[in-house]
Amino acid sequence: MTLSHRRERSVVKDKVRILYLAVYDPHVPYTGTGVRGVHFVNYLARYYELDLVYMEGSGHPGDPKLENNFADRILGVKRKIRIPFSRFDYFIFSKALFREATGLLSTKNYDYILSDYGLSARYGYELSKKFGIPFIYCSHNIEYRQYMGKAKTDLRRWPLIPYVYCVEKRGCRKSEILVVISENDAQFYSKWVDREKMVVIPQGFDETIYHPFYEPSQNDPKIVLFFGNYNVSTNRDAVKVTYDRIVNEVIKNIPNVKFQFVGGHPPQNFNHPNFEFTGFVESMGPYLKRADVVISPILGGWGMPTKVIESLACGKRVIATDVGARAVPRSYERLTVCDIEQFPEEICRFLGEDDPVDMCDFEDLKKDFLWEKQLVKLRERIDKINL
After folding, report:
1. Could you tell me which residues come within 8 angstroms of residue 225 by beta carbon, excluding any fewer than 6 positions away?
2. pLDDT of 306-323, one tens digit each?
3. What is d(CA 164, CA 25) in angstroms, rounded to the nearest whole number?
């Protein structure tokens, strides 16, 4: 079927039809990938007829309890097909995912294939060629560059880098719409493709959960918060640098301060009387709102810092490294960007001010990062192409 025939067919349908392919579970917020995915799926399902094929877990096996708890998080999808996780399927290619997608495309008329995250690009461009349907590639970061960084501590990544590079580059070039997470990523990808085909949608936040309109806690001891999935090496490194270079300097001035680390798979080798590891929590909102200061002592990596955006939306003081803040504008009043050596001083200063919440940045954050305001850009591009 030619592209022109496909578009002629679309005119007589009530809704555009999208086959959404994800190599992770968008129900469960294992990482920022899942946080992002659920908003993309739910938003698009409100306006289009959408079927979802996804792989369990998020680069690791899924947790049945969490899958059950978050089962109702995806709304409005016509059909969902879950593919079991395996390492080969995730890191190389899933015949099961490809087979299920092929079956749907063979029996139902779709207008777009949307491939979400990393190596999902391969399913997108192969199925697009096979069925004559354009595909949208959602890149959460520059994937092969992530592999290069992770390969420094995980040697298994090295032989995969050429493969990831080729899949990602071809996905960018073959896609009809390329969704990128930041202007920096768009600038990088412009070496491969025309900037005009890209839509920049940064990591966003949900204002019904993350907002500054609440009564702040009166904590004793004061709480310094960091959160993330500790299966991710950059988050484990942030715990280590807090242990090695921050906590003992802070307790010289504030002895009973509590450093709270929220998130799944907490490391087991950092025992400190001022540290608390909660494990995975189903909602970060209450923990953010109870915190006095949020820190992001991230030393490496790319992508979009979900934790910084959500923390600022809750009106928190956020102290971050330049890498930890990444593409977040430095103009926000509640954001302090500094070197690790300055973290203890800044933590003590802000805890001493006893100013755990302020709404001064909230309206600007909504303009820059509210999901509803960002995702409309993708819908407008889809609608424009489909005319």
Report:
1. 260, 262, 287, 288, 291, 293, 294, 295, 311
2. 899 999 999 999 999 999
3. 20
State the Cα–Cα distance between residues 158 and 95, nearest whole angstrom.
23
CB crowding 111-144: b at 16 or more within 10 Å, else e? bbbbbbbbbbbbbbbbbbeebebbbbbbbbbbbb
Q: With both helix axes pointing from N to C terminus, report the angle between 371-386 and 362-369 in degrees, rounded to the nearest 10.
A: 20
Given pLDDT bands bounded at 50, 70 and 90, which one contains residue 116?
A: very high
Residue 1 has pLDDT above 60, yes or no: no
Tokens of 237: 């490194």
Rounded distance, CA 129 to CA 125, Å? 6
Check: CB of residue 257 under 8 Å from CB of residue 221.
yes
pTM tops 0.90, yes or no: no
Name the CATH superfamily for 3-204+371-386.
Glycogen Phosphorylase B; (3.40.50.2000)
The CATH architecture that domain 223-368 belongs to is 3-Layer(aba) Sandwich (3.40)
* Start-end of CATH 3.40.50.2000 domains in the chain: 3-204+371-386, 223-368
pLDDT at position 386 is: 67
8 Å CB contact between 309 and 206: no
Partner residues linked to 279 by β-bridges: 262
